[in-house]
């Protein structure tokens, strides 16, 4: 995976410049997804899946206690 | 520096995506290792804490039998074994997500030199700093507590405090790093003293935050064991992450990817500053 990306970006100087903006966008999008995932496992108290019960909180219950995230 | 390493560095300097791939791989591996470690060592403690919690609430119910019983009994959505599995899943998901955030931070800090320069020592140094900022400092202020501790009425308040502690830990580490960088050229005692004072100030700010409002009705030995295992899990996560991330960085710098770059890319892409 990494070798493809490495080769891709060496194609030419201009390609490298346009790739840079794309790479920053991908990195920012990945960071947003990561923050949402961390919120879901460590912070959610029923805000994400509230209709049927506190499923996310209860499923990640032990992980929250272990890593020091506040729990009920 | 060997030529192959230099060429791989140039291509990698233009794209943080291989860095992202290495960090996410390392995060998943660290999450899995930590999940299995805590499944073995932390779950017996948590199961014991839950048995004690149930005994406690049963005793309370007996005491207040007249006052509309079964008030404290909340419905269980998942069995304990499902929650054991949930621990491993949580560790892996959090590991992947932390890997992404690590990649962003690493890319920002090392953007000037490229991401494969001194891959191993930089991985260790970055992970040591991140462990102190994200794991150790918040754990000193708000140590982990086993199940049975934690009042649902105060959870929103405790979450704000915990988040604040993590943010203060990260800001304190960034500040210490900046102090160290900007005092380059001063005598070492001045530089190191300033970094030490920054760390002390960060700790002081952390302890200005209000304390955890909840009672901790758990035997002291169980609480201590749980906190040691909790901090140990954090440490293990960072150790495995550092080893995998640093190892993948070394491999990318000297491996086939670097050799291919040497064969394909005749043109220099960007100057390495």
UniProtKB/TrEMBL annotation, chain A:
GO terms for molecular function: hydrolase activity. Keywords: Hydrolase, Membrane, Transmembrane, Transmembrane helix. The chain crosses the membrane at residues 24-42. This is S-adenosylmethionine hydrolase.
